[in-house]
Amino acid sequence: MAGERERGTAGDSDWIFASDDPHTLPTEQLPDRAAFDRYAAPLLERKRAERAEALKEQLAQRDSGAASTVRASSEAASSDGVSQSPPLHDGGTPAAAPRSPLTPGPAARPRPEARPWPDAPAAPDRRRTLDWDLDTEERETPGAGPGMDEPVLPSRTVSYARSGTTPNVEDGAAGGIEVPERFRELGVFDALRDLLALVCLVTALTTTFTYAPVPMLGMAGKISIGIGLAALIAVHLLRWVPARPPLAVVRAVRVIGLLPALAVPLVVVAVDLVVSLPRLFSSLPDGPPVGIGVGVPLLLLGAIVGIEPRRHEGYLPHHVARNRARLLVLGIGVAAAAALLLALVMIVGRLFTTGWGFSVMVFADALISALLLAIVFAAVWRRDRSWIVFSVAAVAGLVACALADNTLRLQFAAPLSFATGFVYLPPLFAAFGVMISRSFIRTIPISFRRADWLVYTVRVFEFSVLMHAAAVIWHLLAAIASPTGVTRGGPVLHLLDAVVCACFVAVSIFARRALLERRAEVARASGVMAGAVLVVVGFLDIIVNSVATGAGSGLLTGGVALTTGIAAVLMLTVPAPVRDEFGAPDLTRMFADFRMRDTRRASLLDQVPDVNAERARRKTFPGG
Fold first, then answer.
1. Tens of pLDDT along 287-336?
2. Beta-bridge partner residues of 128
3. Where are the alpha helices (DSSP H) in 354-490?
4. Rounded distance, CA 310 to CA 239, Å?
5. Is 478 exposed, middle or buried (0-12, 13-18, 19+ CB in 10 A)?
6. Greatest CA span in the chain, whole angstroms?
């Protein structure tokens, strides 16, 4: 799976489509509207001309038929001495000829209201229009009858789609939720990011901000949150209320209003670092001097997500912005590495002041945190598309849990400090905020293919292997340090948890190898069985640890195994029956595409048999 690095795209090309996807378009960039119009204009003009000619012939035939009918009736009337005239409809217009094949019958379903066809030739009489495609399968058979005696002009041109049953955009708008015209520029991605920023700011106002009661920092955090919330509301009012919104003002209000929310958490982290430096080697029986609560990284995440201008505000990241976004993520990784180095220095110093048991457990916690950060930043450094997407999903789960910290009382969201351990949550959430920004997403081509279900399933098992291997080391260190009283459980419980985590590692390795090497049906069944084992054993591990130590769900107690098992089972079972472009589910083809994604695909010429030897062989003519 190592050959999946993507090189990015130049300019502002559409980043949704990957260049190596054989099941999508053959180009990396979709044609814009102007290019499509240039391509479609001659086709549409030719079809309109053909229909105009057909309509002229139809009208000519109708006029000739009507003339012959009138002539015959006039001759009959003159012979009888009575003058007859054709029947009149409302308005005094004569009755039309028999119904055209283009006219639906009286039993046809009612169609949307008609719109005039601009290229229809002028005709002396009135004709109804019909708002439906001539290529539809719902045409009525030609025939005559009441209400079927008027020719019909199509009201709009044929729109091209991949399938004959695919609805057009204008047809789907009437059946679904119709968005007002002025709100159609608001993208789903931008709306979700604004919603996430709003939720993070509100949650940061209600969760733990700092460990020690520092009135100045707490007040500054509340003021910055209030300004940020007001800015988010103001930018949407300025964008959608006026008829002509001032986009430059909207962008300025967004950036300026969220700058305090971005600066305050950075100040809190810097204050904790400065105050903790003199106490790195001293015992802290009363806890850290400041401490960084979960509200600080949530406020930092909300500010980073909300500060970037949106596309509906006239912002489109260019090449410089994309490069800066990637460099910013790498800079956050360097800051996290520096914090890890400082934590290692503190751990060594606390061996002599606080005790070796404390230092061992802090090192174990730092090992797991550093591994999680390494997965995220290594994916960015290598520009591995699947690992980037999976890392974003994994950190999004931590963000969702941190938002519910007041209810769940999670251990990973407890207040941290440079004086007591490795502060990893602020850089992790900051990197997550940058990675879901439009500027960063445009640095890599992101697409989704059918085989990606298997790719992300493999990533789930690889993530399970890495994290549970670290959990095994953590439990072994905890078993060693448990006699000092720094852990909740005893050595026996930690050794049992280490064995359970080792089983998780073995099951994940087995499932990964099955997905990569075995036949499609066997590989899928093996992956589902492995996911089920992770779910059941992880759930039992959570129950045992909650009863024995009062600990909740987490990496060290089976929570990650439960989550990864559910994700793997769903990705292997739900997408499999989905119909592919050939009309039937093909699990073998799905696995074949998945396993060939990192190798050079065989050319069609390689499948042509070699006939040189047969051509060189001398053949005798039969009977010669």
1. 778 889 889 999 999 999 999 999 888 888 888 888 899 899 999 999 99
2. 152
3. 356-382, 385-403, 405-408, 425-435, 438-441, 452-481
4. 11
5. buried
6. 132
Residue 535 and residue 275: Cα distance in Å, rounded? 44
pTM to 2 decimals? Answer: 0.68
User: pLDDT at position 185, please?
Assistant: 82
Asked whether 19 and 445 are in contact (CB, 8 A), the reply is yes
Q: CA 225, CA 200: separation in Å to the nearest integer?
A: 10
Please give the C-alpha separations between residue 607 and each of 486, 508, 603, 610, in angstroms, as whole numbers.
Answer: 66, 37, 7, 9
Distance CA 531, CA 571 (A): 10
d(CA 465, CA 504): 7
The answer to whether 579 and 585 have CB atoms below 8 angstroms apart is: yes
Pairing type for strands 152-154 and 128-130 reads parallel
Q: What are phi and psi of 518, to 5 degrees?
A: -85, 170
Return d(Cα 194, Cα 172) in angstroms, integer: 27
The burial class, CB within 10 Å (0-12 / 13-18 / 19+), for 114 is middle
Helices (H), 559-620: 559-573, 587-595, 612-616
